[in-house]
Amino acid sequence: MHERLSFHIKRDSILHNLNPLTKLVLTLTILLIAFTFPWYWTPHLLVLVAIIPLSLLGKVFREFSLTAIRLILPAAGFLFLMQAFFQPIGTNVIFKFYFLDITQESLMFAFRNAMRVFVMVSAFTLFLVTTHPSELMSDLTRRGLPGQFAYVIISTLQILPQIIAKSQTIIAAQRSRGLDTESSFFKRAGSLIPLIGPLVFGSLAEVEERAIAIEARGFTSKHAKTSLHEIPDPSFDQMLRWVLAALIIISIALKLWLS
Amino acid sequence: MAFVNLQNVTYKYPLTKTPVLQNVNLQVNEGEFVSIVGPNGAGKSTLCYALAGFVPHFFKGEISGSIEVAGKESSKSTLDEWVLNVGLAFQNPFNQISGAKYTVFEEIAFGLENIGVPREEMKSRVEDAMALTGIRDLADRSPYSLSGGQQQRVALTSILVMRPKLLVLDEPTSQMDPIGTREVFGTIRKMAEEGMTVVLVEHKVEWIAEFADRVIALKDGSVMLEGKPNEVLTSDLLAENGFGISRYTSTAREAKKQGLWKKENLPVTLDEAVEGFALTLPSPQGRGESGK
User: In terms of pTM, does the model score above 0.80?
Assistant: First the structure.
């Protein structure tokens, strides 16, 4: 059973120790530059100068490259193929497959778009791997994000695996009473309907109890909340965020100016 | 003036026809450890919710009469103020885990964060509370990886750390083994001796007899009987009304009919039973005290 839904890997690295908001801004900056910067090779270069160095800086290069090869590359590759085949641009046909043609232009277009998506997903993966969700949320709450909003995000990450585990318990219980889970698809789908009731209504009843439990612990208290963990935000972080913000503004301005 | 004072409290949930609580009158003194017993559907949990402010602030419904704790009137207060004085832990430990925290230590600190306790004070209060309930070794575990009994201890600790004046517990040891139950009852007893007022709903009557100051028997939403644990728990009324009875009480009641129980009071605990039967039953030769 999964204990929680989280990609976080605990390490002691420069990237891990950055303020969560700085990392979030960094991620968004990389993403924006990849998508808006006019130079063709921008996303490709970003992989070399941002994504890979950051994964080394965060001491997660091995885990990150495994994820990239297993998940992100195949997805980007699929996107590349789809766009290369179906993008109706260009005249310089270099490959023909029945009614589908690949032109040089569509190939270039697809290559860049796939790279952009690769950079986007990679940047977010690095962010999630090096940032503990509760640290992110307490930092954002301290900066004014409503506590209820943060609670919904964090508790969903933790409670979903519990609901999955519960559905498995219900299925196991019903199987022991003769529920058919091995014959044809439609038969199985039909026999799952009676399971929805206990799962949904059970979960709703739990929500009420959980609401009572957190209310009993002052969840809606009007006091200003405090936080157990101190999340440092040194001046280096603040400076870095200004630099990143400048980069964001430049790339947006460049985009507007050129279009 | 009693610390907890319920006057003619009648309460009906929004979707039910008959009141769950009917003319409940209840007084608890400061630092007193009171236990509530009753068959299923007697209104025990609703009474807990009423003391903790959730009836009527959370559940709505119709309420009459007055509920006072520490000189404050529930109907004139709001829930978020009320919970600062009254702590509630209930039966199902799984649903009492906030889901917002990744370790037991953080989980226990959750309530203190909510009410704005400064960080250093928060840490020492969490440490103290964990030491009190004996869960220090769980501090870095995920609350979801714990057993039911351990989760119940975490739930209890999460409330104790808030230092409520009145502690309301609805079967807080239902998933614990006897050793765990004894430890938790010991902790609750200690809290009461330090001045915390405790109202505990519990089926384990032997433990109540040993630890509680007073017992209130609830039946169909009304107080049927109240008094010293031994008097209430051995009353014939309880046996006739479907309450949980200690096996030692039932045994001695039968024995009394045969003239084998000479003491005035029936026993609730094993020790009382052994003591009483020692007066009438001959000790078998050669085996001496082995029955004890």
Answer: yes
